[in-house]
Amino acid sequence: MAIPIKFSVLLRFLFLFSLFLFSVSDSDSPSAHQHRVFPRPLIVEHAGVAEVEEEVRLRCGAWRVAGEANNLGEWKTVPKECAEFVKEYMTGKGYLVDLEMVSKEAEEYAKSVKLSDDGKDAWIFDIDETLLSNLPYYSAHGYGLEVFDHDKFDDWVETGGAPAIEPSLKLYEGVLSLGFKVILLTGRSERHRSVTIDNLVNAGFKEWDQLILRRSEDQGKRAVVYKSEKRSEMEKDGYRILGNSGDQWSDLLGSSLSVRSFKLPNPMYYIP
């Protein structure tokens, strides 16, 4: 049934007006330019509700892909109009399928590598959103819609309740069985070593060569600098970094890079 012209015009007006309000309310934010999904008002002739919803879904999908491809600038929160999109992705099948794809490709690569006999072939894993899932925490904080709160997140870490990311656990066990030395390199603080170990073991990650956390001298460093420095130290100790898995580009980029890096999906937050 065709939508009456007057009604369709009203819908279009309300939609464009809502976008205008969004642009005004967000224009004073210092990070507004970093993740604007709608850079200008959409012109949708005689748009109905379904057409508007599809446009938002497509643009939020494009925003997520741009983030995973490291094409966005630094951003602090999920765009307001994409909050529901991110929630559905993280709690739906899409996120799991993407994790399984990353794990499968990483395991295929690991199987293709001929390891040396000196025990110095290493695979690095990040922890949060790589081995352990913080979805229970982020589900209570808008799936990235809220600005990150270090104190609240530390309270969550101290519960030791983060579950395993199952495809990553499978990869982890596969990498160990092939003979890689596993090194865990995390942005968590050294004061969380004990609870992190307990959480990892309880989630099924029971063996590693090193667990590296931020010491006092590492506090305040950008993640990409901190992790590059730690990888450099590994190389000085004779390790060959053949694989690296992380959910942030700062886990993977910088200096002393691995032969292959594997980026896990995470549209909830960005760490430079």
What does this structure look like?
The chain is of the alpha/beta class and 272 residues long. The protein is built from ten helices and five strands; from the N terminus they run ααααβαααβαβαβαβ. The chain has helices at residues 5-26, 49-68, 83-91, 93-112, 135-138, 150-157, 166-178, 193-203, 223-236, 249-252, and strands at residues 121-125, 181-189, 210-214, 240-246, 260-263. Strands 3-2-1-4-5 form a five-stranded parallel beta sheet, sandwiched between helices. The protein starts with a helix and ends in a 9-residue tail after the last strand.
Topology, please?
Elements lengths: L4 H22 L22 H20 L14 H9 L1 H20 L8 E5 L9 H4 L11 H8 L8 H13 L2 E9 L3 H11 L6 E5 L8 H14 L3 E7 L2 H4 L7 E4 L9
Parallel strand pairs: 1-2, 1-4, 2-3, 4-5
Helix pairs in contact: 4-7
> What is the SS-derived class?
alpha/beta
Radius of gyration: 21 Å
User: Which percent range fits the helix content?
Assistant: 40-55%
Count of DSSP-assigned helices: 10
Number of strands: 5
| Poorly predicted sequence stretches spanning 5 or more consecutive residues | 1-17, 19-33, 40-44
Order of helices and strands: HHHHEHHHEHEHEHE
Main β-sheet, spatial strand arrangement: 3-2-1-4-5
Q: Name the beta content range.
A: 5-15%
**Largest sheet, if any?**
5 strands, parallel
Oligomer: single chain
**Mean pLDDT over all positions:** 88
Broad shape: globular
The N- to C-terminal Cα distance equals 50 Å
